[in-house]
Each structure stands twice: as C-alpha cells, then as structure tokens.
Amino acid sequence: MNDIIKGGIGDSPKRTEDHRFLSGNGRYTDDLNRPNQTHAYFKRSDVAHGVIKSIDTKAAAAMDGVIAIFTGADLAADNIGGVPCGWQVHSKDGSPMVEPPHPVLAQGKVRYVGDAIAMVIAETKQQAKDAAEALVIDIETLPAVSTLRAAIAPGASLVHDDAKGNVCYDWHLGDKEAVDAAFKQAFKVATIDLTNNRLIPNPMEPRAAIGEYDISSGEYTLHTTSQNPHVIRLLMGAFVLHVPEHKLRVVAPDVGGGFGAKIFHYIEEAAVTWAASKIHRPVKWTCERGEAFITDAHGRDHVSHAELALAQDGKFLALRVNTYANMGAYLSTFAPSVPTYLSATLLAGVYTTPVIYSEVKAIFTNTVPVDAYRGAGRPETTFLLERLVDIAAHTMGMDRVAIRRRNFIPIDAYPYQTPVALMYDSGNHEATLARCMELADWSGFEARRAKAKARGKLRGIGMSTYLEACGIAPSAVAGALGARAGLYEVANVRVHPTGSITVFTGTHSHGQGHETTFAQLVADQLGVPFESVEVVHGDTAKIPFGMGTYGSRSLSVGGSAMVKAMDKIIAKGKKIAAHLMEASADDIEFKDGKFTVAGTDKSKAFGEIAFSAYVPHNYPIDEVEPGLDETAFYDPKNFTFPGGCHICEVEIDPETGTVHLENFTAVDDIGRVINPMIVHGQVHGGVAQGIGQALLEQAVYDPEGQLLSGSLMDYTMPRADNLPSFVVGTESTMCTHNPLGAKGVGEVGAIGSPPAVINAVVDALRDYGVTHIDMPATAQKIWSIINHAAPRMAAE
Amino acid sequence: MAHIKLTVNGKPAHAHVESRTLLVELLRDHLHLTGTHVGCDTSQCGACVVSVDGKSVKSCTMLAIQAEGVHITTIEGLAAADGTLHPMQEMFREHHGLQCGFCTPGMVMSAIDLVESHPEGLTEQQIRDGLEGNICRCTGYHNIVKAIAAAWPIMHKKQMPQAAE
User: B69 to chain A nearest CA, in Å?
Assistant: First the structure.
C-alpha cells in the first residue's frame, strides 16, 4: 500500500456522490413520495410535565381530509411497546439503572415539551396540521425540573416515580482508595468546576419517515433519515412493533447529516410504520425545524467537578472526577453509555496519570432526551481534562506545553494500559504537538500578542493535546459493559462476471463520502479501476447486516470487514487462476489486479478470473463453487485511538467582549488515510462544531421546561463569518490491530477543538484573573468578566 | 385555490395552489423539483434558495401566488442539457465544498448570485459575509469559500482582481 495509484489509497479523487447532490438529484427521505400516500402530524405537549386528563378528537376527526387520529390508548390496545434503550449501565451497588418505559405516544403523562400525544393522519400535511390544532387536550400541569441543578435539589419534582431523586444510575470507575491516598501525597492540587453546555445537533436535513405496509405479503417498509437502518430494524421490529426482521425493511436513502442525532430509534419511525398497517396506506411524516429542536436528541449537558493531584515536578499523581449527566425525560437509545463508557474511560487522555477515579450520576429532567452528539462523551472528557491541565500549569507556575510534555505517555510505552480500562495501541503525542506548534507558529505568538496589545486588543493562544476512542469494540467487551447489540461490521463484495464490483456495506454515509472512500479501498486492493466499483448502503433488503455509522467507525470497522471479504475473493481467485494456468494455488501471487504464477510471466487479469467464476467452462468445479461473491463480518479486537493537537489563537475586543478567531490549527493522528481531501473536510466540519460549542451554541430551558433556544433565530449555529480558514495536518501512527491501520476521523475535530478555543480565550483574559470560563464564551460573558474585573484590578 | 403560471428552468409551468402555499412547496410538491430543500421554518438556513428573475431568493419566504409570471431557476436548471455542470457546481465538486449535500443546492444558488453581483471581485471576508444566510453543518465552510473564490474567475472569464485577493 505504499505507492499511490490513481483512485487508490492515498489519492483524492473527486467524490462519486457529488454530481447527484450538486444537480438536485439527491434522494432524501422527504423527496420520496409513495403511491396513495397520507401525511402524519404529531400533536405534542406544550408543557414540560403534566397528567393527560382527556383527549377529545371529535372536532378534529370531522375536519377535511382527516383519515385517522391515534393516541397512546390506541397503541396500548394494540400491544405496541415503547422505544427501547440499547445500553444498560449498573450503579455502584450493582443495581441496574432505572429504565422507565418510553411510549411511542404518551401514556397518561407528558414529560417534556415535545412529547408526542397524538398522531393525526390526513390526505395532506396541511390538513393534518389543521386538524391537530382542533384536538382538545386537557393536561393538568405538574412542577417540572428543567436543569440538572433543579432535578437534584432536595424535594425536586420526580420525572418518573420510580427514579428516586431523579437518579437513573450512580456509577463509578477506578480505584477510589488509591486516588485518595495519592491526593494525600500531592504537592499541589488543581481543581475545576465546569458545565459542558447542552447542544442541539441540527443536521441540516430535518428527520423524516415514511411507513408502508403490504397487505398481500405482510411486509412493512420504513424509509427513514437514519445513520443505521439495521439497528432501527432490530429495535423497532423486536421491541416496538413485534415484527420479525424478514417482514420489515428499513431504508435510509440519502441522509442530510447526522452527527449522532440520527443514530437513535425515534417514536415517529414506529408510529408511521404501525399506522400504515392500520389504515393500509403509506404514512409520511417530515419534521419541521422547530419540531426538531424539541424532538431530536440533544447532546452534552454535563456538570463536573474535577481535581488533579500534582507532584513538585509537575507530574500528575491522581485524578478525581465527579459528574452529573442529564439524560432528559427518557433514555434515548445509547444515552446511558455516553457519560460512562464513552467518557470516563478516557480520563487518562494522553497522560501517564497512574490512578483515576470517576463517579457519574445520570439524572432525569423534563427536557428532550440527551444522547450521543459528535464525539459523544469524549468531547466532555477532553474539555475537562485539557482545561484542568491548563489550570494545573497555572497552579504550578509551569509552562502549558512543558507540563503536557512532562506527562505525555512516551511513544515507547505503547501499548499502554490506562487505569480506566482502556489499552491504547499506538500514538505519538510529541509528534502531533511539535507539528501543530510549528504550523501555528506557537513560538512567534508573544510578538503577535504585543502587536495586538498595541492595537488595544487582547490576544490569546491555547492548545489541547487529546486522545479519543473509536469503533467501540470488541462486541464481547461492549456487551460486558452493557451494550445490548454486537458492534461488528459487515461487508459483501460482489464481483460481477465482467469484473465490475458492487460493495454492500452495513455502514451508512450521510456526508462522509463512503461511496468514494470505499471504492478507493476496493480499487486499491483488487487492482481494478476506481470507476468500476459501486458502493451500496442504507437498505436492509440489500445488505446482509450492519451496525451503521457513528463513533468514527466506518473505515476502521466497516473498511476492515471489506478487507476481510476481499481476502476471501483473492483466495478463491487464486484457486481459479491456478486451475487456468495449471499451477498450484500456493504458487499464485496476486498483485495490481493480476494473478501470476510466482517466478514466471504467466498471469491472468482479475477480470478474466471473474468471468471464469461465472462462466465455469474450464474450472476447478470439484474444489470451488462458481461465482465470486463474498461476505465478511469483522469484530474489532480493540477500540482505535485517534489523537492529536489543536491550537487556537483568538483576539478579544475589550470594548465589546467579542472573540475573533485568528487562527485554528489541527494536527491529528488518525491512522491510515484513504482520501486526504475527504479527511481534511471531516476535520474542518468537526472543528466548526467544536468552535460552535466553545463560542456560540447553547440550549437554554426556562425553569418551566420551555426551550428558549428553540429555533435557528435563537440557537446560534456557526455561520461562514464566524469561522476562519483552518490549517489542517495529519501526523499518523498506524492502528496496530486492524488490517488497514485506520483509526477514524469523523469526530476528532469536535473533540479536540473546544478546549483549545477556551484555553485561548482564558489566555487572552489572563490579566483579568480569569482561570476558567464556561462554554459558550459569548461576547456578553466576556464583556461582563472584563467590566467586573477591571475595578478590582484598579483597586489592587 | 389559485391557478398560477410561471417559467421554471426555461419551461412553462402551472399549478393550482392554496393562497398559503409557499414557493418552495410549489416547487417541491407540485412541480416535483425536490432539489430545492427545506431546512428550517424561520428563513434562516438558506437550503431553499432559488433564483427568481435573476436574484437569489429564499423560496420559503415567498408565496407561490407571488410567483405569477416570474422566471425561476432551481438547482436542477443550472447544468447544461448535456449534463455539464455550471462552473459553481463544478468548483464545489473540485474543492470538496459539500458533504451531506443537503444545504448544497441553496448554497450554490446563493454563491452564483454573490459572484454575479460582484464583478469587481470578492475577498474571503466578502464571501463569508455573503454566505450569512446559508447554514452548512458539515463543512465548516472552509471548502465552500474556496470553491466560490475559484468559481469567480471562471464565471467572469478573467483573473480575480489583485485588490480583491
């Protein structure tokens, strides 16, 4: 894999999918219309907590175009279950988490603004919407808890009666006694209290779903905006609708961004599929943006206290972290795993901290369910750790770079066993740090700071040196930790008689460019032209199985499955080639698309072998079956561990508190790179979301549980004029346990960037005595700091 | 119900619409031109931008009945009959200015208007300011900005003036 061939690994061919997207020929779920289709609209709760006293559907049912109105009672009568949670966490005392049912339509109570109460189905969307307005719903409002602090306050109203104190679980990880002992030996202790701000993912395509039922075959079909159609089929079929897999097809066509929010099984998917079988017509639902704000799972929302014990030389002795994590009103599909196994397990970061102890309490609130959003747990841990390291440097009077270098896991310590379960396989933190500092001109910063000062501006620089974990694995380990699914991936490589190839993958592309990257991988390995490889994803009727795309897993897990399937293709091809060239299969070599008898000039092209496999006239029929079509399941041996260094440089206008991003540099170690153009694009997008979290984005609830930041006019999405051009580099070590050496790139940008931004902002404000500022660092917040600190400074 | 006639992508079109029907609903639901997308309900995201009589317009901010007699170009109408992409489409492809593709049609339509309305040239800051009404969640805008800068000389058939660089 050293020489880059055209369209192969390391090349950057333009994306295969782009022509259809650029010409308006993408096919997203809302672009699809089924014959005789109807339209659904969900009537949702406008209070955060209450008892449903009555639902009067009479007037609505009589309105133009209305076909059916369903409520929770109809679903209960048909024995329809709630949407399940896919990960079970146990508390310290061994008891399982409190896992309340999450009904498709509310049963008796509503628990957040947006909770669905009724589904109105009509001939047109407008008719359904008009009729929903005519529903008369009497709700007795109950007190709501809309924030973590409100939910854990003594005497707080309970979201679920069986979750005492609103606690879902009280979990821990690490050696508490050893940590306590180490703190007694500490020279100094660095501490931080922080909130990891609640975010709303906002993929640009709103969710949508079309349910269909074929009465003649008894088959159900769901088209949905999902990152993982097989997972939806499994969860919806087995737990909600009680329909076996062979009678349920789930299709996720072109999907307009996911970022985690489209992993989960949502109630609307089950509702439209079930309703289609009741009215014997397709039922379509398309989410409006305002509706997305109150129904798509939110992200982050952790409150943490952390302490780092330091030795006199700046070595980290021990780390203690206490976190409260907001689960929202119900447990979304993977919510319990986010603050625990995807977060606390990374508290070692890139450092040799010998002992670590973490406690996490997951809390129910009367808000939208909270689940994985780009990075899922790893941005929370990285922010906490990289802020704490900067505070430690300040506490010790040490340089921020020096304290990091003193504590880096040295390259010769790999593989490295952390004290929080994970075993890192590879990394080179000194290399990514050095390269990033060079690209960002770290050494020239003080001169730029002085120049800015002369202009009346406050300039700051900050870095984060991070490590994260991707491709949750192996399945047996994930299962032992509470995952209720396997976490392998599946590939089917189908070589056609004329040598063109279709690859069916269980991963899903919703912006990542799989149709290009996977075609490059196959073209490279089988020595066929890039253009002759077609990648198919997103349809359970075409693809054997799969777990979909999240956690930056598609190349490291899905690509590895493809390599395994191609190995089988090559092994079979060698037997066919041996027969055709009257040689032993052991003597056949495969390289650059040719099967060659070793040490001779006798060879057969890949296409000739494919043809022979399907037209087996001269064929080793006793030894090999006809056809050239292989499937492989790949279960990873370990997580992969991307990492790197991000450096941010900001300038603050003290008159307004506005932060201007001057430079952002990212150097990431993501293992094998297939398409550098796509990889850089992934980093750009991730960094933009991280900067959004650091400076702009914040979901805000009022005390009654109303979402105040409930539209794109109230929730600040990063726009082009908020961001600089980025400097991006890679400095890769290979993953040692998968055949590609790939680690994953989808989330690194969103994980590494927020602490780099805030460390820069804090650095810019160092003369004001600031040691921490919570995200988002808005102009208002900074202006207040500057204006409240100034008199004190004057008095000193 | 009102009956309206207009020209879409160079061809005559007509439809019966309610007075509350939006232009974007006319395009998507009545004329089946689904390349124009709906990404929000507050005229913020720009996924629905089309060209109305040569100017970029968010088609969710205009009623269908206001479109009587106008000439509309949507993303489907940009490429030549033989499939050759418009320079802006081609530069988005060349510079990886799209990922999931959902904001892309509106982004491309806005970008064309931006370049056409700045024959004197465009700085990076002007491009960024000009995209204020279009939200992309995937790309961080980095490559979109590059694509637009690269399309300017092709569309104006001359080098970008130095002062604008």
Answer: 23
Interval A466-485 mean pLDDT: 92
Which residue in A504, A489, A578 sits closest to A535, CA to CA? A504
User: Domain B87-164 adopts which CATH fold?
Assistant: DNA polymerase; domain 1 (1.10.150)
Chain B residues lying within 8 Å of A688, measured CB to CB: 139-142
Chain A residues closer than 8 Å to B124 by CB: 725
Contact B37, A205 (CB under 8 A): yes
CB A196 within 8 A of CB A519: no
Check: CB of residue A185 under 8 Å from CB of residue A317. Answer: yes
What integer pLDDT is reported at residue A790 of this predicted model? Answer: 57
The structural domains of chain B, with segments of one domain joined by +, span 2-77, 87-164
pLDDT at B4 over 50: yes
A369 prior amide bond cis, ω within 30: no
**Domain for residue A196, yes or no?**
no
Beta strand A66-71 pairing with A116-122: antiparallel
User: Residues 613-642, chain A: which have Cβ within 8 Å of B?
Assistant: none
Residue of B nearest to A690 (CA): B140
- CATH architecture observed for domain B2-77: Roll (3.10)
A157 inside domain: no
pLDDT at A794: 42
Tell whether A454 and A503 lie within a shared domain. no
Q: Chain-wide mean pLDDT for chain B?
A: 96
**Do A784 and A685 fall into the same domain?**
yes
Residues A232 and A116 in one domain: yes
pLDDT for residue A795 is more than 50 = no
The two domains B2-77 and B87-164 share their CATH topology (first three levels equal): no
Separation of alpha carbons A574 and A595, rounded Å:
7
Q: Give the separation between CA A670 and CA A643, rounded to whole angstroms.
A: 7
Q: Give tens-digit pLDDT for A646-662.
A: 999 999 999 999 999 99
pLDDT value, residue A312: 98
Do A612 and A546 reside in the same domain of the chain? yes
Under the banding of pLDDT at 50, 70 and 90, the label for residue A695 is very high
Query: What pLDDT band is residue A522 in, cutting at 50, 70 and 90?
Result: very high
Give the structural domain span for A330: 302-472+638-795
* Domains contained in chain A, number: 3
Q: Is the minimum CB–CB distance between B126 and chain A shorter than 8 Å? A: no
**Is a pLDDT exceeding 90 seen at residue A571?**
yes
Confidence category of residue B163, pLDDT binned at 50, 70, 90: low
- Residue A608 falls within a domain, yes or no? yes
Q: Are residues A437 and A513 in the same domain?
A: no
Q: What angle do CA A500, A501, A504 make, to 5 degrees?
A: 160
CB contact under 8 A, A24 and B136: no
Beta strands in A545-642 (DSSP E): 588-591, 594-597, 603-605, 629-634
How far, in Å, CA of A653 to CA of A456, rounded?
8
* pLDDT at res. A796: 39
Query: Given this model, what pLDDT does residue A81 score?
Result: 87
Does A246 share its domain with A372?
A: no
CA proximity to A275, closest of A517, A515, A4, A40: A40
User: Do A759 and A666 belong together in one domain?
Assistant: yes
A23: nearest CB among B41, B75, B102: B75
Are B110 and B49 within 8 A, CB to CB? Answer: yes
Query: Shortest CB distance from B139 goes to which of A256, A681, A712?
Result: A681
Interface with B, mutate which of A16, A22, A549 (most B CBs under 10 A) = A22
For A265, A273, A314, the CA distances from A229, given in Å and listed in that order, are: 9, 14, 49
pLDDT above 50 (res A130)? yes
Pair A300, A197: CB distance under 8 Å: yes
- pLDDT tens per residue, range A580-596: 999 999 999 999 999 99
